[in-house]
Amino acid sequence: MVKEKTELDAMASGAEELRIDGFDHVEFYVGNALQAAYYYHKGFGFDVVGYRGPETGVRDTASYVLKQNNVTLVLTSALHPGHPIAEHVHRHGDGVKCIGMKVQDARKTYETAISRGAKGVGNPVEYKGEDGAYVSASVQTYGDTIHTFVERKDYTGAFAPDYKGKKKSAGNIGLTYIDHIVGNVEAQRMESWVDFYKKVFGFYIYQYFDAKDISTQYSALVSKVMANKSGTIKLPINEPAPGVGKSQIQEYLDYYLAPGVQHIAIGTKDIIATVAQLRDRGIDFLTVPHSYYEALPERVGKIDEDIDELERHGILVDRESEGYLLQIFTKTVEDRPTLFFEIIQRKGAQGFGKGNFKALFEAVEREQAARGNL
Fold first, then answer.
1. Looking at residue 321, what DSSP letter applies?
2. Tens digits of per-residue pLDDT, 247-298?
3. If DSSP codes are grouped into helix, strand and coil, which group holds residue 247?
4. 58 near 162, Cβ under 8 Å?
5. Rounded to an integer, what distance in angstroms lies between the CA atom of residue 294 and that of residue 217?
6. Taking a C-beta distance cutoff of 8 angstroms, is the pair 69, 49 a contact?
7. Number of Cβ within a 10 Å radius of residue 24
8. What pLDDT digit, counting tens, does each position of 176-188 carry?
9. Which DSSP state fits 330?
């Protein structure tokens, strides 16, 4: 059963919403930032725009900043085996460490979050120089994932202090903004994290999907989407549900060895053109059978796109009362079956493709079966 936009849940918690303007960046901890940057530059069409490392005075890590329109990724690796980042990668593999959030007042946002029970993992750090002011502070969330509040109202430097500008263009392929970021948590732990986002962030449950919504004959999951009222931040939280086989969420937890970010959904204004370029660049996507497209006209009605073209690229479609959306999911982008990406185009619809859940789950299960993990 799907329940939508239950803002009363947040109001009932008594928590005033933290003022968060949107996603600022996503930082990955990786084994080799140079090579990871090459992958996202060549494969996903991100420009390399910044660097921090020994050449900028930082002796123990290296970071590359990649940007495409309003999407910013930071790839960071350790330069010494005993560094905490090296230990993080050894345990989890490459993955998302930090979800950066734009705020007007990082210090106040951090102090409010701490007063409501959040655990601080990075006290406010302020920089003032000729390129303006920059403030950031971080709190702990599920697993080893953190949220960093970033204030850069008048900052004109290269991403953040200690970074220098770098320009390596990849050719814009139309990825425009971060639509949502999905986290996987252990069974019976979703509700506690829902409460965390209500009480600490003042977020509300935007949508709720139970095991009947997201299931096949083998596996299932439960999901609640936490969001701010403006809709600039959406954070679905998944937990595995009992089934005959192993849920994709449990497979993630088995390999990541902790809760963490499962996928990042990135918006585009022309999904067919974007996916065509991603395929040309070597990005692999999940596939769905021909029968899905045979049933599509009756299920979603009239759409602007040619169905044969959608089938050629493996793009899914779902209709809601406000319109429809188009989406597609990459295969996992790490050797461990953990992180993947979603490409999404919204044409009025503001949901998450409930009508595609079964087809998506079956596609994931085919990959699980190939790995011997279903």
1. T
2. 889 999 999 999 999 999 999 999 999 999 999 999 999 999 999 999 999 9
3. coil
4. yes
5. 22
6. no
7. 25
8. 999 999 999 999 9
9. B
Pair of tokens at residue 209: 């999907």
Q: Assess contact for 304 and 317: CB atoms under 8 A.
A: no
Phi then psi for 243, rounded to 5 degrees? -160, 175
| Tokens of residue 165, six digits | 């500008």
Neighbouring CB atoms inside 10 A of 179's CB total: 23
Cα 233 versus chain centre, distance: 11
Q: How far apart are CA 86 and CA 78, in angstroms?
A: 5
How large is the angle between the packed helices 248-256 and 357-371, nearest 10 degrees?
50
| pTM of this prediction exceeds 0.85 | yes
The pLDDT tens digits for 332-371 are 999 999 999 999 999 999 999 888 877 777 787 889 889 9
Alpha-carbon distance 369 to 342, whole Å? 21
pLDDT tens by residue, 319-334: 998 999 999 999 999 9
Question: Going from the N-terminus, what domains does the chain have, and what CATH number goes with each?
Answer: 18-168 (3.10.180.10), 175-371 (3.10.180.10)
For residue 367, how many C-alpha atoms fall within 13 Å in the half-sphere facing its CB? Answer: 24
Long-range contacts formed by 365-372: CB under 8 A, 24+ apart: 365/216, 365/218, 365/219, 365/245, 365/248, 366/287, 367/286, 367/331, 367/332, 367/337, 368/245, 368/246, 368/248, 368/251, 368/337, 371/337
Our CA dihedral for 150, 154, 158, 162, rounded to 10 degrees, sits at -70
d(CA 11, CA 72): 32
| For residue 242, pLDDT beyond 90 | no
